[in-house]
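On clarity, I found the account of how folds are encoded harder to follow than it need be. For illustration, here is how one protein appears when written out as sequence plus structure tokens.
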Amino acid sequence: MNTDETLRDLVLHTDDQLGDLLQVLLQRANQRQMWLLFIDPEGRLGEPLMPMDDYPRDPLTLTRVDDLGEVTEAHLLMQRIGLILEATGNASVVLVWERVGSAGVNPQDRAWAQAMAERATGLGIPLRAQFVLHASGIRQLHPDDYL
């Protein structure tokens, strides 16, 4: 895995392969932000790769938008992710929650992962996996971590 082109050619059959790729790409946390990644229909890393550093602290905070009315921040974010997924022709989405700190799952990790998994299911958006990028690397969040 030496070049970006080579990384994009990898078919990610398993979540372990996906985690290894994310470790190479993202390495370790520098700040609080969420990475939005897509997997194409062939199982490779798709475009775009998007960091977002201004997401709210609480996924259940209500917000009002013209097209959806009053919804939670998690609902709004996942709905918008679904639009990007559809527009780009990708097959699924991967969320990486970057934050400085240990590899342990904290309450905010748990709240966001649970809310986004629930909203993905409710909206019919294929959420491939969620990860936490921490001070020393990356770890996958499994349902046991947040349910």
